[in-house]
Automatic annotation (TrEMBL):
Protein name (Swiss-Prot/TrEMBL): DNA mismatch repair protein MutS
Gene3D superfamilies reported in the protein's UniProt record: 1.10.1420.10, DNA repair protein MutS, domain I (3.40.1170.10), MutS, connector domain (3.30.420.110), P-loop containing nucleotide triphosphate hydrolases (3.40.50.300)
Cross-referenced InterPro entries: DNA_mismatch_repair_MutS, DNA_mismatch_repair_MutS-lik_N, DNA_mismatch_repair_MutS/MSH, DNA_mismatch_repair_MutS_C, DNA_mismatch_repair_MutS_clamp, DNA_mismatch_repair_MutS_core, DNA_mismatch_repair_MutS_N, DNA_mismatch_repair_MutS_sf
SUPFAM superfamilies referenced in this protein's UniProt entry, alphabetically: DNA repair protein MutS, domain I, DNA repair protein MutS, domain II, DNA repair protein MutS, domain III, P-loop containing nucleoside triphosphate hydrolases
Record: residues binding ATP: 607-614
PROSITE patterns per record: DNA_MISMATCH_REPAIR_2 (PS00486)
The keyword DNA repair is assigned to this record: yes
Annotated Acidic residues bias: 825-835
Listed SMART domains: MUTSac, MUTSd
Function noted in UniProt: This protein is involved in the repair of mismatches in DNA. It is possible that it carries out the mismatch recognition step. This protein has a weak ATPase activity.
Family membership noted in the UniProt record: Belongs to the DNA mismatch repair MutS family.
Source organism (scientific name): Haloplanus vescus
Gene Ontology molecular function: any one: ATP binding
Length: 876
């Protein structure tokens, strides 16, 4: 079915774009037609009506022109790309064309203060190029990598809202990126990724010198960055001028944190979603949204560079020691607006007068901030350099210009005048003078006319239909002079005009129009001048954000009594009286030491359920992460050797995403860690192997320990319920046992969680005790104890450890005696009656695999009964 008329035009425009939806301006409305109308009707709860067009009817849904933004935002934030066709006047009527495509990565109107990254990825000569830009602030980064996993990790770290892949990027990589982000994937013109074209685009944007100085000789990086610029340009968002600098970075600059680890450590969100209770939510005391973005960036991308870390720590230290100056600084920053975002709005032409006022007010804070820092105890800290970074003179002169130009209380629209101060432009002043004298004449007209005519009920007013008029009460209309011409009769009065009044009215209207136009022009010029200073605004914005983030770190450190870590490279992790940064704020926390050094780099953490193993390990990881972010840490003292990555596998998270079983997820995360971790990493494993049958689980945990110890050689914390593993400490030189202490033996007495970490393995698991605590009926608990005792007979496991000579030594661990037998045959021991019969073995497997907490007492009893029967059968 072909459509003519307005719907035909809509469909024709729609076929020009690959956007998901089209909003087409029709006079005072933006309309969606046909399928798009039905779609937005459902998504946005818009009323869908019928539009007849050339004999057919079509669904239609519309929003008023001034209300488009929130609807666009809602659609784009749900991941759709929306083309906008604007209507413009032509000689013979009007025409429409698509002026921009709003996509998740180019949505300037976002109200979410978090960074909003658009990413392009490509592959050239076997290397990946990744470019990332936040159009709302003009931030633009580019990096290259050889390994696919690095690209995925970077994408997860920046969490882009939109990813534009080049033609050489395969679907598998995109699937991996999608798994850790909510990014919309957009196809774009392949030719934009061609290295030659991309290089030209980059040169045009940043100039020859800038390009050389970032050293982008890697064609993959050039291709990704150039394609990103082309894409931003083609969407028509108009922010290219806000992209004032290209920062090339190396993935090695930052600590590796995969998406799983970011989630496990609850850096910005808790496992249940929401930022309350996350690390960021807990330690954030920033007073500006740009400061919060900066803090978030530091926590999700901690540094690996000691100089960078020490510089931040020096600033935080200075702030903790100068509470008064810190308060003063935070008070000043409290009035700051988001300059980086304002710069992008100025560049795209969407900034209004209040935005420019916000620029002016924020620029005005810079001298006050500099003074608060330079005239206090902060003067000798790196803060003085940070505040000296932006060009203060340029900032002052831009501010002075805005001061001179902008009216104090400008209206919300930019077309009606009232934006510009007197004294800024002679022509405008002249217009205003004439306008005011005309206005004065009008203001005094009523008085003059009363005097001239003797009429008492006479007033001069103005409305839309009648323009200016003189209104006279009915009783006195007889007294109106001859030069009054009647224009309207009302119930109690009549309205008149005079020739002179008409002249004056025309003059006022002409002046008003001229003023609106002139002010709009002046305002646009001013906005363009502000846009031309985008790099200055960004520099000031960065300074304010950085100072805010540093002051926030100091505020938290001071209030929670955190200490400055000694950051060493490379080195041990030694923490005295450490705490978990989040848990300590809600609980009476028992501090613990962490000691991971050369000869004890691998700690096996045992202890009853609920005793605090996970908390202990996360606290160690978070202390390292905070230190490398440049923060003080929750401890009495801490020495933190810089690590290149933190990798975690935490058992508690039941993730059934993607239809994979919990165990499959667990194993693929383990696989990822074992592939990625290096000697300089920190690995945290919580109950690896738990998701499968006991023997499989022990075997995997055992082999993992050996591999990490012998092959990777990194720092590792491994919590396990498999007591069998604790014997490995005797055999693998760097493995040490620690346990969370409890009081009471758990068999007959109640146990008390002491929450302290002590050297050595725990002697039992207390799982049965927890079952007891959870209210499992006593016959089941008692019988479990009996069964557990019988479980102490078992097979042997062979331990492998690399001796210093490189020769592999083998030993055999005998679970029934709890010790090793040295030897090379690694035969299972025959002690205590030899191997278990299959019936016993299967009962044991099931018993270990039974979750007491998740099985009802009735089922538990039934299972125990069945096990007893099978054991009796087996004995026959
Ligand atoms: N040092 C501590 N001081 C005070 N409370 C703590 C401490 N460590 C942990 N806790 C609290 O103890 C509870 C259990 O901690 P956690 O989850 O770390 O135990 P777990 O040994 O890993 O348990 P499971 O083996 O069942 O997974 C948590 O509610 C935590 O807040």
């Amino acid at each position: 079915m072909s459509a003519d008329g307005i719907v035909g035009e809509f469909l024709a425009l729609k076929s020009e774009t690959d956007a998901d939806l089209l909003a087409m301006q029709c006079g005072d409305f933006y309309e969606f037609f046909a399928e798009d109308a039905e779609f937005v009707g459902d998504e946005l709860d818009l009323k869908v009506s019928e539009k007849s067009s050339h004999g057919s009817t079509y669904p239609m849904a519309g929003v008023p022109v001034d209300d488009l933004t929130p609807y666009l935002k809602a659609l784009v934030e749900r991941g759709y790309r929306v083309a906008v066709a604007d209507q413009y006047e032509t000689e013979d009527g009007h025409a429409r064309e698509i002026t921009r495509v709003v996509t998740p990565g180019t949505l300037l109107e976002t109200t979410d203060p978090a960074a909003q990254f658009l990413a392009t990825i490509t592959r050239v000569d076997g290397r990946y190029g990744l470019a990332l830009a936040d159009v709302t602030t003009g931030e633009f980064l580019v990096t290259t990598a050889t390994a696919e996993s690095d690209v995925v990790a970077e994408c997860h770290r920046f969490d882009p809202v939109e990813v534009v892949p080049g033609p050489t990027v395969d679907a598998d990589l995109l699937d991996q990126i999608r798994e850790g982000t909510d990014a919309t994937v957009t196809d774009h013109d392949d030719s934009a990724f061609a290295p030659g074209r991309a290089e030209r685009t980059l040169r045009e944007q940043f100039g020859e010198a800038a390009l050389d100085s970032v050293g982008l000789d890697d064609r993959a990086g050039v291709a990704a960055a150039g394609a990103l610029l082309t894409y931003v340009e083609e969407t028509g968002v108009g922010v290219l001028d806000a992209m004032t600098r290209l920062r090339a970075y190396d993935t090695d600059d930052h600590l590796n944190l995969d998406a799983t680890t970011q989630r496990n450590l609850e850096l910005t969100e808790t496992m249940h979603g929401g930022s309350d209770g996350s690390l960021l939510g807990t330690i954030d005391h920033t007073v500006t949204s740009a400061g919060r973005r900066r803090l978030r960036e530091w926590l999700t991308r901690p540094s690996r560079n000691r100089a960078v870390i020490d510089r931040r720590l020096d600033s935080v230290a200075a702030f903790t020691e100068a509470a008064l100056a810190r308060d003063r600084v935070r008070e000043i920053l409290d009035d700051a607006y988001d300059l980086e975002r304002l710069a992008a709005r100025a560049t795209s032409g969407s900034a209004d007068a209040s935005d420019l006022l916000a620029v002016r007010e924020t620029l005005a804070l810079l001298p006050a901030l500099a003074e608060a820092i330079e005239d206090s105890r902060l003067a000798d800290s790196p803060l003085a350099d940070i505040v000296a970074d932006p060009d203060r003179e340029a900032a002052a002169s831009l501010r002075a210009e805005l001061d001179e130009a902008l009216a104090e209380d400008p209206p919300g629209t930019v077309t009606e005048g009232g934006l510009i101060r007197r004294g800024y432009d002679a022509e405008l002043d002249d217009l205003l003078d004439r306008y005011e004298s005309a206005q004065e004449w009008l203001d005094n007209l009523a008085g003059r006319e009363k005097e001239r005519t003797g009429i008492t009920h006479l007033q001069v007013d103005r409305n839309k239909t009648d323009g200016y008029y003189i209104q006279v009460g009915k009783s006195e209309t007889g007294a109106v002079p001859d030069d009054y011409r009647e224009i309207k009769t009302l119930k109690n009065s009549r309205r008149y005009t005079t020739e002179e009044l008409d002249d004056r009215e025309r003059e006022v209207l002409r002046l008003e129009e001229a003023r609106g136009e002139l002010e709009y022009d002046l305002f646009t010029e001013l906005r363009e001048r502000v846009a031309a200073h985008a790099d200055l605004l960004q520099a000031v914005g960065r300074t304010l954000a950085t100072v805010d983030a540093l002051a926030s770190l100091a505020t938290h450190a001071a209030s929670q009594d955190w200490c400055r870590p000694a950051v060493v490279e490379p080195g041990p992790l030694v923490v005295e009286a450490g705490r978990h940064p989040v848990v300590e704020t809600t609980t009476d926390f028992v501090p613990n030491d962490v000691d991971l050094r050369e000869d004890r780099g691998f700690l096996l953490v045992t202890g009853p359920n609920m005793s605090g193993k996970s908390t202990y390990m996360r606290q160690a990881a978070l202390i390292v992460l905070l230190a490398q972010a440049g923060s003080f840490v929750p401890a009495r003292s801490a020495t933190v050797g810089v690590v290149d990555g933190i990798y975690t596998r935490v058992g508690a998270l039941d993730e059934l995403a993607g239809g994979r079983s919990t165990f499959m997820v667990e194993m693929s995360e383990l696989s990822n860690i074992l592939h990625s971790a290096t000697e300089d990493s920190l690995v945290v494993l919580d109950e690896v192997g738990r998701g499968t049958a006991t023997y499989d689980g022990i075997s995997i945990a055992w082999a993992t320990t050996e591999y990490i110890h012998n092959e990777i050689g990194c720092k590792c914390l491994f919590a396990t319920h498999y007591h069998e593993l604790t014997a490995l400490a005797d055999h693998l030189p760097r493995v040490e046992n620690v346990h969370v202490a409890v009081a009471g033996d758990g068999d007959d007495e109640d146990i008390t969680f002491l929450r302290t970490i002590e050297d050595g393995p725990t002697d039992r698991s207390y799982g049965v005790h927890v079952a007891d605590l959870a209210g499992v009926p006593s016959p089941v608990v008692d019988r479990s104890r009996d069964v557990l005792d019988r479980l102490r007979e078992d097979r042997a496991i062979e331990a492998r450890g690399a001796e210093s000579g490189g020769e592999t030594k083998q030993a055999v661990f005998d679970l029934s005696s709890g010790g090793f037998r040295e030897g090379s045959e690694a035969e299972p021991t025959e002690s205590d009656g030899g191997e278990l019969d299959p019936a016993t073995e299967s009962v044991l497997d099931e018993l270990e695999g039974t979750s007491v907490a998740e099985t009802s007492p009735v089922d538990l009893m039934a299972r125990v009964r069945e096990w007893q029967e099978r054991l009796e059968e087996g004995e026959k």
